[in-house]
Design goal:
Helix content is about 55%, strand content about 5%. It has helices spanning about 5, 15-25, 60-85, 90-120; strands at about 35, 40.
C-alpha cells in the first residue's frame, strides 16, 4: 500500500499516463473528455467523468516551457541554415518567424494540458481533496 493510500488521500495517480493524456488535451482522469474549451481555457469539470479541473494553476508555466523549447530548437537550426545556405536575411527572417510562431501555437495548448495533468497526478493545488 502506498503512503497516499495509507494517509487516506486515495490511490496513486500514475504520472506518465496522466502526462500523455494532458499532452493530447484530454482529461487526466478518464483520458476521453476534452480538457480545454477553446484554445487555452481549462474546463471546470470533465464532461465525461465529472472530474473537477478548476483547481489547476498552470498560469505562465506553459508559456515559459514553450519559449524554452522553441528557442532551443530553432536557434541551432537558424545557425545551421545561415552557415550552410546563406539565404537572404529577409528570407531567413520570414521562414524562421513562421516556424517559431507555428511551433509555439502547436506546443502551447499541449504543454498546458501536460502541466494540468502533472498537477492532477501529484495532487497539487486541491486536486487531492476528497469530494464532499
Amino acid at each position: 500500500m502506498s503512503e497516499n493510500t495509507q494517509a487516506g488521500v486515495g490511490e496513486d495517480r500514475p504520472l506518465y499516463p496522466s502526462l500523455w493524456k494532458g499532452w493530447r488535451r484530454k482529461c487526466p482522469n478518464c483520458g476521453s473528455g476534452p480538457l480545454l474549451k477553446g484554445y487555452l481555457k481549462v474546463r471546470d469539470t470533465c464532461p465525461v467523468c465529472h472530474e473537477e479541473l478548476h483547481h489547476q494553476r498552470a498560469d505562465d508555466g506553459p508559456a515559459y516551457l514553450t519559449i524554452l523549447i522553441v528557442g532551443h530548437l530553432m536557434a541551432p537550426i537558424l545557425l545551421l541554415a545561415f552557415e550552410i545556405w546563406r539565404p537572404d536575411p529577409l528570407v531567413l527572417f520570414t521562414i524562421f518567424t513562421i516556424g517559431c510562431v507555428a511551433l509555439s501555437l502547436y506546443l502551447l495548448p499541449r504543454l498546458k494540458g501536460a502541466m494540468v495533468a502533472l498537477q492532477w497526478s501529484k495532487r497539487m493545488h486541491g486536486f487531492g481533496r476528497a469530494k464532499g
